[in-house]
Design goal:
This protein has 326 residues and is an all-alpha fold. The chain has one domain. The protein is 72% helix and 0% strand. The two termini are 16 Å apart.
Length: 326
């Protein structure tokens, strides 16, 4: 497969996974506006922007305190617009769909007609809407529909895409984006959830994470109704059976890289395989006994970013002199 085509499929997977991730968090966030205290709402917005590494358009989000009565729905409206429809924000849902579609357009010959139709339908639907359209109706349903659209696209891809390297790169893009975003999210969660500036969160911070990533039923099945941060963290990080856990994503990366075999950039390909193995080993063998969970999560996040660099260097931007020779 041409490196340009492989890179396009990889980034389609990444952009759509990013849109799904943000849609999940936004679904929980707009639900909190109905009956949650200001501390819970503020925590949710801060968590969103902090782990994405992007700046907020609302100064009140940076200056808020528990006594700021003027902070609330108006600012939430602006923040929701920024993360949903603002095209200049690379992390907005609309931007993610637009960039995912553009990658698909450039490698149109590598995606099935059904995939192209499915992606186009979702893109044009979100492009024609504005924050006012969903805010006065049912914003939760809008974000749930976004997640469903992405699941539909991946289901169509699973049913129609030929199982060559392109399928592997699409999947690798999805899971490496998930691993990076989840690691960053949990770094913030561990660092800030017990901070005094957010007030008493009443376990909302951890419960909302379980709801975001469809892990609440699994948690209740194995641990009961009481929300305990350590157990939630372990479930989301190293549970081998939870599809949205970090370990599950990293194990998928390792498996897909094995399927790809030798990379054109041979040296970086071997390094990428070692990094994938190291990441899964860290969670499987070191995480259970690690006392400093934040340090371990930060290490996982940094290594996941480096893994992306090695994958790019090995399969997309490799030097001719380093390529495999037959």
């Amino acid at each position: 497969m041409l490196s340009r085509s492989a890179q396009g499929l990889y980034w389609i997977g990444r952009y759509l996974k990013r849109a799904e991730h943000i849609s999940r968090l936004m679904n929980v966030q707009v639900a909190a506006l109905i009956d949650r205290p200001l501390a819970h709402i503020y925590f949710g917005w801060t968590r969103l922007y902090s782990h994405l590494g992007t700046s907020s358009p609302v100064a009140a989000l940076r200056d808020w305190s528990e006594e700021s009565d003027g902070w609330g729905l108006a600012d939430s409206f602006t923040l929701a617009d920024d993360l949903t429809f603002t095209r200049t924000n690379d992390y907005s849902i609309c931007s993610c769909f637009e960039m995912g579609r553009e990658n698909a357009r450039q490698i149109r010959h590598c995606v099935s007609s059904e995939m192209w139709i499915c992606l186009n339908r979702s893109y044009f639907r979100i492009r024609e809407q504005h924050i006012e359209d969903i805010w006065t109706g049912n914003p939760q349903q809008f974000y749930a529909d976004m997640v469903q659209d992405i699941h539909t696209f991946m289901g169509v891809a699973s049913s129609t895409l030929y199982r060559d390297e392109g399928w592997d790169f699409l999947q690798i893009g999805r899971v490496i984006e998930h691993a990076q975003l989840m690691s960053a999210l949990l770094v913030f969660q561990v660092s800030e959830s017990e901070s005094e500036k957010y007030g008493d969160l009443e376990d909302y911070d951890w419960l909302s994470l379980l709801q975001c990533f469809q892990a609440d039923e699994a948690y209740q099945h194995y641990y009961g109704l009481k929300v305990e941060p350590d157990k939630v963290l372990n479930l989301l990080v190293n549970d081998v059976r939870l599809p949205n856990s970090i370990y599950f994503a990293l194990d998928q990366i390792r498996s897909r890289l094995d399927e790809l075999g030798d990379a054109p950039g041979n040296r970086n390909g071997a390094t990428a395989n070692r990094f994938a193995g190291r990441l899964t080993s860290l969670i499987k063998y070191e995480w259970p006994d690690a006392e400093d969970k934040k340090r371990m999560l930060t290490l996982l996040e940094n290594l996941a970013f480096r893994l992306h660099d090695y994958i790019s260097s090995a399969w997309f931007n490799y030097e001719i002199d380093d390529s495999v020779r037959f």
